[in-house]
Amino acid sequence: MLNKYSMLYLYKPHIPKKSFDDIKKALNKGNLVYGDNCKKFESDFSNYQNIKYSHAVSSGTAALHLALLALEVSNDDIVFVPDFTWSSTVNVVEIVGATPIFIDVDINNYCMDLNHLDSKLSQYENHPGQKIILPVHQHGYPLEMKKLKKLAKENKCFVVEDAACAIGSEFSNTKVGNFSDIACFSFHPRKVLTTGEGGMVATNNSMLSKKLRRLLNHGFLSDMKEYKFPGLNYRMTESQAILGIHGLEDLDERINLRRELKNEYFESLQCIKGINLPEDNLGHNWQTFLITLDNLINRDELVNSLNNKGINIVKGSNSLSSLDFFIKKYGSNPEVPNSVFISSQGISLPFCEAYSKKEVDLVVENLEKEINNI
After folding, report:
1. What is the distance between the alpha carbons of residues 70 and 182, in angstroms, rounded to a whole number?
2. How far is the C-alpha of 326 from the C-alpha of 223, rounded, in Å?
3. Which residue in 230, 306, 311, 369 has a CA-CA distance of 20 to 30 Å to 134?
4. How would you classify the pairing of strands 290-293 and 314-315?
5. pLDDT of 205-262, one tens digit each?
């Protein structure tokens, strides 16, 4: 049995061995911020994701903030966001002064419910300001983007893809990030590719690309010449870029290992009553493996008990409109029942390419015991 001194953690970040020597060389060279390694990482990322322009930034949240700034989203605008996701998605909406419109999610894949989105778009058909749709490829699941793009075109909306979890994920054999005006990626340690902290903001639009570069670099292009307008400092470091360069080299192989691990979980969890498995998808990179529990199971009690036994299981994201801040500002939201359920009954299981059937068996054995004891 595991205990707090031998914890099976939620994940192990992938740190490429090749990066150690290269980071040491970069440190000795003394060029620490946005140099040749950052430029190579941007180029390699664009080639991998098949996106024309990629800009390395300090976090996925920075990428989202820059996307909204580039589209000049502000006080009179509305942004349609999934209600079940990490708070960074809506934080940037609030920071630029726009109003979030919370959309329920699909109960099976946890992504934005496009039927509910369609209904809300109709409700705001005559909104005088800009309209932006900000879908999230939740946990790496590729949302049905052709339908979303059709809705966006019909309703004259910009689209910003929150692909924080979804590097390598595909919809209709096309990498996510290619279905929008701007796409945003995160390289947090839990992601399939990590640079510690870090992110990428990407686009196929040359004008938006130049605007994004200036916004992330104090108002300058990379050569630090010809200041145009105020910008921020959201640049990536050289050491982070080195992690990204080497992380891309075996990314597809590691995604395949995650898909194999997902299959082990699917097979082993089918025998446990009271749980609901996530929807499978061939284009899913499986950054996270989240299941939901029937309402009769006390989720918080289960999480605490398993962590006390050394199995690091955590709650999922939040129903954003159910957080106190948003209730106080916008009132209660009865239109997001799926999000509320997943938020209250979802658990993320230990999952990464470093784990195998051995870890799956340990998790499933303890999970089943605890559910039977509750």
Report:
1. 9
2. 42
3. 230
4. unpaired
5. 999 999 999 999 999 987 778 899 999 999 999 999 999 999 999 999 999 999 999 9
Q: Which amino acid is at 228?
A: K
Q: In the 3-class helix/strand/coil scheme, how is the chain assigned residue by residue? A: CCCCCCCECCCCCCCCCHHHHHHHHHHHHCCCECCHHHHHHHHHHHHHHCCCEEEEECCHHHHHHHHHHHCCCCCCCEEEEECEECCHHHHHHHHCCCEEEEECECCCCCCECHHHHHHHHHHCCCCCCCEEECCECHHHCCCCHHHHHHHHHHCCCEEEEECCCCCCCEECCEECCCCCCEEEEECCCCCCCCCCCCEEEEECCHHHHHHHHHHHECCCCCCCCCCCCCCCECECEHHHHHHHHHHHHCHHHHHHHHHHHHHHHHHHHCCCCCEECCCCCCCCCCCCCEEEECCCCCHHHHHHHHHHCCECCEECCEEHHHCHHHHHHHCCCCCCHHHHHHHHHEEECCCCCCCCHHHHHHHHHHHHHHHHHC
What does the CA dihedral 263, 267, 269, 275 come to, rounded to 10 degrees? 80
Name the nearest CA neighbour of 204 among 240, 235, 174, 225. Answer: 174
Q: How far apart are alpha carbons 18 and 147 in whole angstroms?
A: 41
Q: What is the pTM of this model?
A: 0.96
Both tokens assigned to 57: 């930034």
| Burial class of residue 153, CB neighbours in 10 A (0-12, 13-18, 19+) | exposed
* pLDDT 10s digits, 293-336: 999 999 999 999 999 999 999 999 999 999 999 999 999 999 99
φ, ψ for residue 22 (rounded to 5)? -70, -35
